[in-house]
């Protein structure tokens, strides 16, 4: 099995030499081919590459950007696997083998990435080295400690991205609408997930990344401009910001008992929370999501994702089927939240967990919206009465956790004026001060067993 390593260059000769030398030092030459696509360098990079008989080279007269350059390399690749690698990286001993092993550990896995010192998202790890000479020592210790470990993700960064060639044949390469470099890797990952492939991070593969070297070393490139342009391109294409796809709903997820094996997630989004649950525990996930695009992406990690009518709570599952049911925002998905909470008990096993995020009507932003005539919610639920949503004969409340948020400046000014008026009319301020900064409550309720339910009735 051969891996085609595609490296893009645009000046930065010293970093390119460092990158290629690390590949030759730490990789079996017989298992790889190196393809370097130069995007119009003028610092001696082209002359250096022309002397390298052991690599394939493609020379562009101008900077064609990251997406197009990678696609040019892809068109000339003969490997079973494709690895896109930035030229401001340094690979380490046994960097490639763990990623390939993980890539073929499961036929569902379509793309894999390593951990690094400089990368956004879940691939970044803390490092303690302070020089290039110390990288190898750190990498060996870290990778030995995490040998064979991996985790699922909804996003892999393109600084070092390994994919099965058959996956790229199916979903295509990078979208060349993205200029320069940013968001094209997010886009590729989402298309892989839509096609049913999972993304994995190999925790036992470490690649050092200088980070943004192409931008910092070339004055003709503006990283901030490219970021804004590509961010808008991403929004125009996917009709939503990237954050809509990668929010793991941490407060909700942390309440799920580690023993839960069958989990229903109403409002699962693109499945980021589900992927994190799979990283933490052995479970089978079922999702409910109205948005078709988000539903198609979540399906990569969920056993089934449907567009059920959550208002009616008519779900295609047997009674007492789930160990846990998660609801991202109950009041936004139900006209009668108490009835919904009661109906969902049918699908929970005895002692199963119902975990909800419930907006606080006394939150400053919500009070302000009421004044403006644009109420955010149709129900009046606060930290004082949220417990009344859960019928005592069905549920025992395990915890109610308030979540605080800082309102924007104009809302804070409104809150100050509201407190002033309360003092003028002799009204108590304690509840206003305490509850106005709580945007929602996370409630964990336990379904009572049958004999407990009968006793309560």
From TrEMBL:
Transmembrane segments: none annotated. Residues 264-356 form the Methyltransferase type domain. InterPro entries: Glyco_trans_2-like, Methyltransf_11, Nucleotide-diphossugar_trans, SAM-dependent_MTases_sf. Residues 4-170 form the Glycosyltransferase 2-like domain. Pfam families: Glycos_transf_2 (PF00535), Methyltransf_11 (PF08241). CDD domains: GT_2_like_c. One of its GO terms (molecular function) is glycosyltransferase activity. Keywords: Glycosyltransferase, Transferase. Its EC number is 2.4.-.-. This is Glycosyltransferase. It comes from Bacillus stercoris. Signal peptide: none annotated.
């Amino acid at each position: 099995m051969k891996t085609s390593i595609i490296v893009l260059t645009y000046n930065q000769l010293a970093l390119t030499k460092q990158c290629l030398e690390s590949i030759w030092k730490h990789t079996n030459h017989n298992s790889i081919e190196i393809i370097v696509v130069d995007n119009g360098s003028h610092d001696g990079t082209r002359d250096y590459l022309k002397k390298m008989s052991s690599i394939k080279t493609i020379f562009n007269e101008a900077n064609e950007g990251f997406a197009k350059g990678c696609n040019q390399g892809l068109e000339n690749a003969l490997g079973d696997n494709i690895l896109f690698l930035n030229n401001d990286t340094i690979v380490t001993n046994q960097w490639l083998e763990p990623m390939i092993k993980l890539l073929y550990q499961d036929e569902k896995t379509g793309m894999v990435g390593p951990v690094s010192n400089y990368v956004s998202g879940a691939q970044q790890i803390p490092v303690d080295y302070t020089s290039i000479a110390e990288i190898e020592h750190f990498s060996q210790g870290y990778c030995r400690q995490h040998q064979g470990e991996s985790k699922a993700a909804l996003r892999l960064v393109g600084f070092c991205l390994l994919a099965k060639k058959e996956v790229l044949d199916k979903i295509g390469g990078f979208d060349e609408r993205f200029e320069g470099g940013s968001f094209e890797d997010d886009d590729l990952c989402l298309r892989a997930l839509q096609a049913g492939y999972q993304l994995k991070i190999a925790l036992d593969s470490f690649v050092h990344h200088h980070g943004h070297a192409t931008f910092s070393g070339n004055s003709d490139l503006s990283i901030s401009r490219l970021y804004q342009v590509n961010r808008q391109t991403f929004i125009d294409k996917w009709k939503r910001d990237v954050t809509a796809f990668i929010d793991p709903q941490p407060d909700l997820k942390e309440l799920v008992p580690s023993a839960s094996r069958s989990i229903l997630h109403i409002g699962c989004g693109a499945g980021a929370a589900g992927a994190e649950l799979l990283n933490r525990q052995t479970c089978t996930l079922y999702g409910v999501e109205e948005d078709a695009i988000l539903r198609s992406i979540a399906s990569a990690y969920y056993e089934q994702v449907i567009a059920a009518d959550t208002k009616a709570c008519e779900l295609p599952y047997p009674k007492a089927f789930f160990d846990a049911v998660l609801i991202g925002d109950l009041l936004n998905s139900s006209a009668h939240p108490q009835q919904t909470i009661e109906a969902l008990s049918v699908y929970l096993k005895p002692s199963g967990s119902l975990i909800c995020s419930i907006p606080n009507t006394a939150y400053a932003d919500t009070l302000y919206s009421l004044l403006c005539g644009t109420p955010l919610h149709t129900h009046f639920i606060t930290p004082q009465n949220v417990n009344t949503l859960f019928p005592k004969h069905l549920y025992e409340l395990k915890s109610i956790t308030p979540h605080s948020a800082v309102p924007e400046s104009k809302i804070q000014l409104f809150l100050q004026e509201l407190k002033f008026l309360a003092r003028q009319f002799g009204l108590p301020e304690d509840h206003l001060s305490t509850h106005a900064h709580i945007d929602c409550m996370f409630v964990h309720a336990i379904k009572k067993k049958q004999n407990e339910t009968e006793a309560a009735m």
